Amino acid sequence: MTDHRPWRGVLVATALPLNDDLSVNYDRYAEHCAWLVGNGCDGVVPNGSLGEYQVLTPEERARVVETAVAAIGGERVMPGVAAYGSAESRRWAEQAGEAGCRAVMLLPPNAYRADERSVLAHYAEVARSGLPVVAYNNPIDTKVDLVPELLARLHGEGHIRGVKEFSGDVRRAYRIAELAPELDLLIGADDVLLELAVAGAKGWVAGYPNALPRASVELYRAAVGGDLDTALPLYRQLHPLLRWDSRVEFVQAIKLSMDVVGRHGGPCRPPRAALLPDQEAAVRAATEKAVAAGSS
């Protein structure tokens, strides 16, 4: 971890443990954050999609950030601050700063298909919070695409310092590096980890380390270090799981894998429904196979 670029390394987009009544189990969440760091991860990203932020109350959302900071220190916590309105996102960024965080992650406006002017204004507003902002490009879900040219403009105007790239188009890594060489590229989807690591990624906002942190960290370190003899077999071994991170049911899948390995994944809040039987069987089998092969 570095003080000025705390988004570098493996930052886990944390799943949020819920009780049977679907209330948040903050004690389990604190323990989970500490367990991830203890198993080699560099930090956590609470209140991302994997953390079900959309269905949390404001009080829950704030407490999740405070819980993570108390567990592992604010320099290791980069909360998601997405909201429908720019003013609300800025308030979440300010809350993160008050809690001790050193950076935040921000989706573009996602209440509607925003144009470039709206995107620029949105990031400018949240940047006024004073914390470094990492953009999150997820055109599949938001319908707003932070293409390399727009990312370069956002970076050039001082609104963002990095980008979590979830488009799935690994070719963009090279264009981003050409247009904004100082903009840190973060791997945004688990199933393109190797491709983006080889292309120069500086970090990974990761899903599957929630269940398999040590193997995931080993894969990331080998990949960014150019050790393909280590990385490629491990990537092939884990890819049947990693690809769930890019599927609609990614939260349910990762939580199930956590249950399989003896962690607390547990239920999701509606409207997320339980996995179908064939989906559950596939995730369970892939997780058990990975564990049997030595991944953990």
Can you tell me about this structure?
With 296 residues, this protein is α/β, with parallel strands linked by helices. It has one domain: Alpha-Beta Barrel (TIM Barrel). The chain has twelve helices and seven strands. The chain has helices spanning 26-38, 58-72, 86-99, 116-127, 139-142, 148-156, 172-179, 193-198, 213-224, 228-242, 250-260, 277-292, and strands spanning 9-13, 43-45, 104-106, 133-137, 162-165, 184-187, 203-206. A seven-stranded parallel sheet has the order 2-1-7-6-5-4-3. The longest helix has 16 residues, at 277-292. It is globular, with a radius of gyration of 18 Å. The two termini are 22 Å apart. The mean pLDDT is 97. Pyruvate binds at residue 205. This is Dihydrodipicolinate synthase. Belongs to the DapA family. The active site is at 136 (proton donor/acceptor), 164 (schiff-base intermediate with substrate). Pfam families: DHDPS (PF00701).
**Total domain units:** 1
The share of residues in extended strands comes to: 5-15%
Give the averaged pLDDT, no decimals: 97
Q: What is the number of helical segments per DSSP (H or I, 4+ residues)?
A: 12
Low-confidence stretches: none
Could you say which overall geometry the principal axes of the C-alpha atoms support?
Answer: globular
Compressed to H and E, one letter per element, the order equals EHEHHEHEHHEHEHEHHHH
CATH class: Alpha Beta
**Rg measurement, Å:** 18 Å
Structural class: alpha/beta
CATH architecture: Alpha-Beta Barrel
Instruction: Give, in spatial order, the strands making up the sheet with the most strands.
Output: 2-1-7-6-5-4-3
Looking at CATH, the homologous superfamily is Aldolase class I
